[in-house]
Amino acid sequence: DEASALPEATGDARSFRDLILAKLTYAVGKDPIVARDHDWLRALSLALRDRIVDRWMATTRGVYRMGGKRVYYFSLEFLIGRLLKDGLNNMGLLGTAREALASVGVDLDVIAELEADAALGNGGLGRLAACFMESMATVGVPAYGYGIRYENGLFRQNIIDGWQTESPENWLAYGNPWEFPRREVAYEIGFGGAVEASEGWDGSAVHAWKPAETVLAVAHDTPVVGWRGLRVNTLRLWSARSPDPISLDAFNAGDHIGALTARTKAESISRVLYPADSTPAGQELRLRQEYFFTSASLQDLVRRHLKQHREIRTLAQKAAVQLNDTHPAIAVAELMRILIDIHAMSWADAFALTRDTISYTNHTLLPEALESWPVPLLERLLPRHMQIIYAINARVLTEARAAGATDAMIAAVSIIDEGHGRRVRMGNLAFVGSHKVNGVSALHSELMKETVFRDLNTVFPGRITNKTNGITPRRWLMTANPGLAGLLRETIGEGFLDDAEKLVALEPFARDPGFQERFAAVKHANKARLAKTIQQTLGLRVDPAALFDVQVKRMHEYKRQLLNILETIALYNAIRTHPEKDWVPRVKVFAGKAAASYTSAKYIIKLINDVAKMVNTDPAVRNLLKVAFLPNYNVSLAEVIIPAADLSEQISTAGMEASGTGNMKFALNGALTIGTLDGANVEMRDHVGADNIFIFGLTAAEVEARRAKGLNPRANIEADPALAEVLDAVGSGVFSPADPQRHRGTVDNLTNSDWFLVTDDFTSYSAMQRRIDALWGTPAAWREKAILNVARMGWFSSDRTIRDYSDEIWGLPTVKVG
Ligand SMILES: CCc1ccc([C@H](C)CC(=O)N[C@@H]2O[C@H](CO)[C@@H](O)[C@H](O)[C@H]2O)cc1
Fold this sequence. Notes:
It is a single chain. The protein is α/β, with parallel strands linked by helices. The protein folds into two domains: 56-469 and 803-810, Rossmann fold (3-Layer(aba) Sandwich), CATH 3.40.50.2000; 473-708 and 763-796, Rossmann fold. 49% of the residues lie in helices and 16% in strands. It contains 35 helices and 24 strands. A nine-stranded mixed β-sheet has the order 7-10-11-4-1-12-13-17-18. The two termini are 44 Å apart. Ligand 26W binds next to helix 7.
């Protein structure tokens, strides 16, 4: 009968099966015969969690026993994605779980698809934080991640008639098996009120902040498993709770709504993630979020430090606080408040200790992305902190003058921006309150010294350093691309699993026909899988044998999805006018969310979908060109798209992409990159070799020079008839017959200003695409380059990045893996 047909589970699979069944029965409360897929998902997750908790407690006890230094990673975003398969893989239980479930008639892949993505981030910054957490556990860095437990993560993107619409992402609908609520770990967070100054016993000024309102920050802990499950760190996310759930007097007075307003207001702090990934919303709630989690985290780590080490003055030796961009920069003032107002430390000692404890990472040079808050808002919401910021600024300006700073430099160094209605520059506050400030790629860190932090770098030389980003090879190779990981294990052994730089052992196989065949077969299988997703999502049939050309990332003008779609239209026109030519079949895959209020980015999404509608149904191009915009790009969709790519589009205006991390994921999965010399593309070229990457376009210096000289998009358009034809078509409504003027704005903006130099790079970009077509026609040469990319991407493991932070910024040891 049915049951007997099921495969037998042996060894650990058998005991793991029993554990799953026990969880299903006693934790989920479901009889196996009636259990639904979601029930099995929960039971399996709880079973895995048990195995993880044992290692978690062992790690925590070990760290206490060692009494060593901990890293505290402060981030308003953790773009985690799903945790089941990643946890099974890191615990070495993937095969075991698959066998255990099969023995009760359940398919691991089916139930794994039901897990909601923890989308507690916007894009690069948030995903980097998640990769860093996994790598810190892997290389033995005792660490806590601190952030906010948003009830709603990044919005769900729906594409309605080609337009992006947003709907709330309720990731907790089925609960979250990975977190442990810590009701007992709660801190009061104050807002508003006033500061009472009095005189201390030694005549020194004593300040006491009396907040007008208080919110409770309650901890929820999620274990973070490292590779091989050797160490498990903690992600502590704060949830906002109102100290008093209901104001009874209002309720008794019949004002039932009023009775809840205080609570609703308090708890709105952890309601939703701000969906902006480059332009500050500038809203008070955002500042409340930033202070809320920063204060709770600092109170928590100081409590832990005193409990173990008794003496606050040793804090910098036992705690390294890393600020993930300026979002937690208020930490500089908050730690000062704690040290001076609560621990009665002198100003000078407190400032030295703060600076020795904190370091700051900058992730963008976009002027509009650099946070600053109006002084009046800070004075109202955080009056004590504003006092402290003034005092810090006075000290900094004194130091700057002593260092011979000019008035212009003083104005630039100042934390207070006297122009624009007096605002507090959070980047400057983070800089002066840190012992180290780093960029996220070599080019970006240099540009930081030449632009946003030029004067601070002059006054405080040697503080800026570089830490080139990385990605975890567990999620982005082993879990996302088991076909390739399996082929690599068979070919070069397992060493690369513990040290990604051992992938270099693959180089000798780059020209091996047998290996090339197997490598191509893995890629083809991944492409067939993506083709199925495209079919199911868009009803569009694509040929896995075509060149899969992929651009997936947040929608932003500097990332130049517009350059890509305009070149696609030029290709479309060329195929139509020269059908006789031997065109390379291409599938152009796009995906990415636009910030809800970012209109011009939303028009680019619409343009891509308008072009797709035309091209995909045009018999003249047959199967030579397909365009697909996949909705709701997130971590889980990235894990399906990236292993299936032949070509990775990293085409940002040079000088504007701080690093990029998608670029690394594609190359590690055997895609070739077409890109500008921007961010980490530069270091990727240095590692994979200039012959194995397609670099085009202006350099950052040339972009700077052209902008300084004045841009001339009209001349660029006149110089390239193909571009001119494309812009005429788009501008006149060829792709929007129902609304011919729809894309007029996009074309006019390009023709009149083109701040992102799309027209300047179009010709070289298009020419490079044709060179790529030519190489595609010689599979052996293509595959050799793709294999060399995989072989030489090991350095871009976030394990290496974390070792760099540990060595130079945090000053703590790491361990060899495996
Ligand atoms: C205040 C609004 C806001 C929110 C997020 C951000 C982030 C800094 C934007 C971001 O994600 N930056 C990306 O960070 C990645 C990780 O370092 C880099 O690889 C990307 O190049 C960078 O754009 C800026 C401004």
